[in-house]
Design goal:
The chain is of the alpha+beta class and about 260 residues long. The strands form two sheets. The protein has a five-stranded mixed β-sheet, with no helix packed on it. Strands 2-1-8 form a three-stranded antiparallel β-sheet. The longest helix is centred in the middle third of the chain and has 52 residues, at about 135-185. The chain has helices spanning about 1-10, 10-50, 135-185, 190-200, 205-215, 225-245, and strands spanning about 55, 60-65, 70-75, 80-85, 95-100, 105-110, 115-120, 130-135.
Length: about 260
């Protein structure tokens, strides 16, 4: 019962473990999505990437085997990759988002960032010099792909757990303050820690709803908050009822002769 739950003040422990579970489930879904997307990227590269030989030596990039500039769509995005070691193209004015590889420099453009265009020299990049081909690139991509899922699950679980638990603490503390004041007005003998435990417990369904909405790509504003308030208020009323049971009715009338 809620009364037993708050008597042990298990709120923050419950929230920490529940947040960890939700973070793990979300990370599993995220890792599966990353693995599927990487498979599509590799398949797209096999179809769109021409046979080439690229060489990086002494900070200079050269590309042979294909006509240049080579313009390719960046898989899973709206960006454009332009490869031109002849330096006939020197800027990204023609695209909104993209990457330009010249003989001595790399330009990256993203209108959502400031500055929109960033420039670095090949010699400053931590890329091992050598010769690269289409087969080499695809082989490396296939070798890396199996590690994406476990990395995504471990890293995603840690990051999402911290985020979910931190947001839960802030949300629960704020509403627990309101609930504690209301409980005092109603003359309920509850400590702030006990009301906070109820708030943490009431977050269970809203967090699950947000997880389901995120996976399904749905958005219903304020529904998780409404569900939380229904649970929170209902739990406090249930505790009040348990702590203040109705007085037993005494039988009326005297004993018969």
């Amino acid at each position: 019962s809620y009364k037993e739950f708050v008597s042990r003040e298990l709120g923050w422990r419950y929230s920490a473990l529940f947040s960890l579970l939700v973070a793990f489930l979300a990370s599993v879904f995220l890792a599966a999505s990353i693995t599927a997307a990487s498979g599509r990227i590799i398949a797209d590269l096999e179809k769109t990437l021409p046979d080439f030989t690229a060489e990086l030596k002494d900070g200079t990039f050269t590309l042979t085997g294909v006509s240049q500039p080579l313009v390719l769509p960046i898989p899973e995005s709206e960006g454009t990759l332009i490869i031109d070691s002849t330096d006939s193209v020197t800027n990204l004015d023609a695209v909104k988002t993209g990457i330009l590889l010249n003989s001595t420099k790399i330009l990256i453009k993203d209108d959502g960032r400031t500055p929109a265009v960033r420039e670095t020299a090949w010699k400053d990049e931590k890329i091992r010099e050598g010769t690269y081909t289409k087969a080499f690139v695809l082989e490396k991509a296939r070798k890396i792909r199996p590690f994406l899922a476990p990395i995504g699950i471990v890293g995603g679980t840690a990051a999402l757990w911290l985020l979910i638990f931190a947001v839960s603490v802030v949300f629960a503390v704020a509403w627990a303050a309101v609930g504690f004041l209301s409980a005092r007005i109603a003359k309920m003998k509850l400590t702030f820690a006990q009301v906070l435990a109820v708030a943490f417990h009431a977050l269970t369904t809203p967090i699950l709803l947000m997880l389901i909405f995120g996976i399904a790509g749905l958005r219903i504003p304020f529904l998780p908050t409404i569900v939380f308030l229904v649970y929170f208020v209902g739990a406090l009323k249930s505790i009040q009822k348990d702590m203040n049971p109705p007085a037993p009715q005494t039988p009326s009338g005297g004993a018969g002769a």
